[in-house]
Specification:
The complex is a heterotrimer of chains A (about 500), B (about 100) and C (about 120). Chain A is mainly α and about 500 residues long. Chain A is built from 19 helices and 2 strands. Chain A has a two-stranded antiparallel ribbon with strand order 1-2. Classes of the chains: A mainly alpha (about 500), B mainly alpha (about 100), C mainly alpha (about 120).
């Protein structure tokens, strides 16, 4: 038996594993006043993991391992880069938050890095088992991180709800996968693509695919499988909420896209209508529910449900009319990248603002710009970007989405585009409402004005990075189109 | 008597449905955990019998991984429950309702 | 005697040896130990739980923590079985790989000990 392991291709994952073990050991060795080294090690390790990514990106060749089950191509590299940048921003946001909460620090970083490792594995997975491992490694640590504030009943409840629905979705997903395996005898995506092509009329196949879609529907919090999201987002520590709404959601999307695009393109007539309905429902229900939220984290939770709907639009539209999926795939990846940056920025601004308002209620945020205009500007930038107003990054995400729909053509896609357009307007209303509250309304309460309330250095860095990216992408969309182009180079393995 | 794979699949389907119904109808968290285990074991049974019928090893390999991940997940879940029990003394999910969706 | 029954002879020998071992141990213990029966000592032993009462009795949440730890380490052992079968073909690489795997598990155990999980207050 001979097999070779391409250590360079695995280097980003290995660096994260090494960091994990270092963080874990440090936590056992260090006494409390020296615990800050743990955060330093976690941040340094995450940064270090980007180096092999850059090397692999410059080389630009596709590396395939384990009979094509684990592939490092440009698509995987782009997503790994996205995951690592997002993880880095979340780590920066967490640092001060976790220290001021006085809970276990070592375990926090350990679990967060374990989740990052899972998402890295998933970007490369090209078979059902590795996809499953990556997905579970991404979500399982998050069950615990959601319940991080052990003394807080809301946090407890959030983690229990997330756990039960997360595991339920896993079971449903696995049942679908086990049927796919039983029907075809294949576990690699390339094998599945061949074996499933043209078998969309078999009842068992239809059931298997629907189970898979329902399973992923929970993971990406698409309506009608979204009801855990607002509760979990509100109860979790805010940096973890940011991570949930960005990394874990994107990870779910990546898994879904890989399955549909690589493994099941031959049966698109089965999953296309389901995806179309998910997209339309997510946008509409997500936005309408967001309208009546008074808590800013819950508002962002429903907004991320709606954004998931927008992200599903290109794929659903292209598949319904049977158009080429490549354009839709690229558009979705571009949307994911932009969404990650601006949503992380929005959460960073919520964390920074909550240090002054001591509350997540929107009423407490009234008039915040009067005492801190810089924070007010940041609120405006990120929320208008989420709404898709030029010249901020969000407009290009929406543009890419509508463009791919127009390329697909056909009546059903036009209907979907109209639904998306109406929803974009509804979304603008509640995003603008937040900005109005912060800038125009009179303060209803007292703001905390001491030095402690100023954003910490690491949080400020996170804000600057996401601000720079949001503005830069808005003015120079070419910065992110390469992401879409790179994602076209997707290796099926074999 | 040789039992064909179809019977195992039917048994797995029955287990899965029992588990899913339990998840929906029961309100005790521990019972819900058992239902999840039931569903995951239905998946394992499907994979094993499919692998056996197809004479392919991948099904069994998948079961190994699902087994371990399921164990890890249940441990995480029980840890969450222990954390909640330490603060209050109920196992009913309905009494956990401080967050309303 | 046919070879078939001869092999049963081995089984019988082992069974006898086992019986002698157990009875011998118990016998020696009975001779050597001091006898001082109290009502608590006479109770049927069942993992430290009071065996009297309804089957629906409550148990300590503490047991869960031990149970959880046991489940995790026991289930990880599942990966060692397939590895053991092909160890010879994998060679040194396989050995190192499994050492890393077990090292990570041991690290987890050390963590549990450091956190005082294995102590019964």
């Amino acid at each position: 038996m001979t097999f070779t392991i391409d250590y360079l291709a695995l280097a980003p994952e290995l660096v994260i594993v090494g960091t994990l073990l270092v963080v874990f050991t440090l936590d056992m060795v260090l006494t409390r006043p020296k615990k800050f080294w743990i955060a330093t090690a976690a941040v340094a390790g995450t940064a270090l993991a980007a180096i092999p990514l850059v090397i692999l990106g410059v080389q630009g060749e596709t590396r395939s391992m384990f009979d094509g089950s684990y592939v490092v191509d440009e698509f995987a590299l782009v997503l790994k880069g996205l995951f690592i940048v997002a993880a880095y921003l979340v780590l920066l946001m967490s640092h001060h938050y976790i220290e001021s909460e006085r809970y276990y620090q070592g375990e926090y970083y350990f679990l967060l890095l374990a989740s990052v490792l899972g998402s890295l594995v998933m970007a490369s997975s090209r078979d059902l088992i590795i996809l499953f491992i990556g997905l579970e490694l991404t979500t399982a640590p998050l069950f615990l991180l959601t319940g991080w504030r052990k003394g807080d009943a809301k946090s407890n409840e959030a983690s229990l709800k997330y756990f039960i629905l997360g595991v339920l979705s896993t079971a449903i997903l696995l049942y679908g996968m086990s049927f796919l395996y039983g029907l075809t005898g294949e576990i690699t995506f390339s094998g599945l693509a061949e074996a499933t092509a043209g078998r969309g009329d078999e009842p068992a196949m239809v059931m298997a695919i629907l189970f898979v879609i329902v399973g992923f529907g929970f993971k990406i919090a698409a309506v009608p499988f979204h009801f855990w999201a607002p509760d979990t987002y509100e109860g979790a520590p805010t940096p973890i909420t940011a991570y949930l709404s960005v990394n874990s959601k994107i990870a779910g999307f990546v898994a879904l896209l890989l399955m549909l695009y690589i493994a099941l393109p031959g049966v698109s007539e089965v999953w296309a209508p389901a995806l179309w309905i998910l997209a339309a429902l997510s946008m509409t229900v997500g936005n309408l529910s967001a309208l009546r939220q008074t808590n800013i984290v819950r508002l962002l939770a429903y907004s991320s449900v709606a954004q998931a709907g927008f992200m599903l639009v290109p794929f659903a539209a292209a598949a319904v009319v049977g158009a080429d999926l490549e354009e839709a795939f690229a558009a979705t990846v571009v949307y994911l990248a932009i969404y990650a940056v601006m949503n992380l920025g929005a959460f960073a601004v919520v964390i920074a603002g909550a240090r002054k308002t001591r509350s997540g209620e929107l009423s407490a945020w009234a008039g915040l710009a009067q005492v801190d205009s810089r924070l007010g500007v940041l609120v405006a930038v990120f929320f208008f970007s989420l709404a898709g107003i030029p010249p901020l990054a969000g407009w290009f995400a929406k543009f890419a989405m509508f463009r791919s729909v127009m390329i697909a053509g056909g009546t059903t896609t036009v209907v979907l585009a109209v639904i998306a357009a109406v929803n974009a307007v509804i979304a603008l209303y509640y995003y603008a409402k937040v900005v109005k509250t912060v800038w125009v309304d009179d303060p209803t309460g007292e703001f905390v004005e001491d030095v402690e309330a100023a954003p910490a250095v690491s949080l400020r860095l996170a804000l600057w990075v996401s601000l720079a990216l949001t503005v830069a992408i808005g003015f120079f969309p070419a910065l992110v189109t390469f992401v879409g182009d790179a994602s076209r180079v997707i290796a099926v393995g074999g | 008597m040789i039992v064909s794979a179809g019977y195992y699949m039917a048994l797995a389907a029955a287990l899965f449905v029992i588990g899913a119904l339990g998840m929906l109808l029961r309100r005790n968290v521990l019972v819900m955990f058992m239902c999840i285990e039931l569903m995951l074991n239905a998946v394992n049974l499907t994979l094993i019998s499919a692998g056996r019928a197809l004479n392919d090893l991948n099904g069994q390999v998948a079961v190994f991984f699902i087994l371990v991940v399921a164990a890890a997940e249940v441990v995480v879940g029980l840890a969450i429950i222990v954390a909640i029990f330490r603060r209050r003394s109920t196992a009913s999910i309905d009494e956990l309702s401080e967050l309303r969706g | 005697m046919s070879p078939y029954f001869e092999s049963y002879l081995t089984v019988g020998a082992f069974a006898g040896l086992g019986a002698v071992l157990v009875l011998g141990m118990l016998g020696i213990a009975a001779v050597l130990r001091p006898t001082n029966p109290t009502s608590a000592k006479k109770m049927t032993y069942e993992c430290g739980v009071d065996p009297v009462g309804s089957g629906w009795s409550q148990t300590y949440v503490r047991y869960y923590v031990f149970g959880l730890l046991f489940v995790i380490f026991e289930v990880e052992a599942v990966f060692i079985f397939p590895w053991a079968i092909i160890l010879e073909r994998l060679g040194v690489f396989g050995l190192v790989e499994m050492m890393i795997f077990i090292f990570i598990l041991v690290l987890g155990l050390v963590y549990a000990i450091r956190k005082g999980v294995l102590e019964w207050e």
